[in-house]
Amino acid sequence: MPDQIVIDPRFEGKVQQVAKTPRIDGVVVAEVRENVDDRQSLLVYLKSTDPIFRGFAQSYVSITARGVVKAWHYHLKQTDIWFVPWGKIKVGLFDARKGSPTAGAANAIIMGGGNHVTLAIPPGVFHGYISLADPSILINTTDQPYDATDEYRAPWDDPRFGFEWEVENR
Q1: 59 forms bridges with which residues in the sheet?
Q2: For residues 16 and 12, what is the distance between their CA atoms, to the nearest angstrom?
Q3: Is residue 137 part of a domain?
């Protein structure tokens, strides 16, 4: 067996590019442990003792069909805490906060589909998602009651964010 593998030049690949964008400041992705026994599968996605918990004002469920993009919006007061118990989504985040150490950064996070995480989105961060399953269920728990005057929107395909909603085949 040779010490070094040599690839035929006709079949050479390219070195995988690792994402270099830092996690947006203030965004927290917390792993959720799945407790499984012969009776059930149990996921505790948020407790009042969790560091990401900012208080409770309301919680709602959004059910979204595959391929639907729900984006972009942000709040100036409200923190959103997302969990996907069913399906799979690709979350888009963009830091629009002046003076933030990650201002102008975009992040993509996969939630659901086996990736059990809770996502805390701070005020001033644009966010949205595309459903990668049919359907995907998102639970949003907020620290402020819904206030239409604290919801700011931009088109889902806004070129300022440089975000690709499509699935990236690697």
Answers
A1: 141
A2: 12
A3: yes
Residues 136-170 pLDDT 10s: 999 999 999 999 999 999 999 999 998 999 887 76
Q: For 71-93, write each residue's pLDDT tens digit.
A: 999 999 999 999 999 999 999 99
Q: Which residues contact 101 (CB under 8 A, 6 or more apart)?
A: 25
Residues across the chain: 170
Domain count, the chain: 1
Token code pair at residue 121? 């989105």
Domain of 95? 20-46+55-154
Residue 44 phi, psi dihedral angles, 5° rounding: -100, 105
| Site of tokens 């012969």 | 38
Quote the DSSP letter at residue 14: -
CB atoms within 10 A of CB 95: 25
Q: Is 89 exposed, middle or buried (0-12, 13-18, 19+ CB in 10 A)?
A: buried
Q: Confirm whether 125 is domain-assigned.
A: yes
* Distance from the first to the final alpha carbon of the chain: 30
pLDDT of residue 134: 95
Reading the block at residue 98, the tokens are 């002046």
User: What is the three-class DSSP state of 59?
Assistant: strand
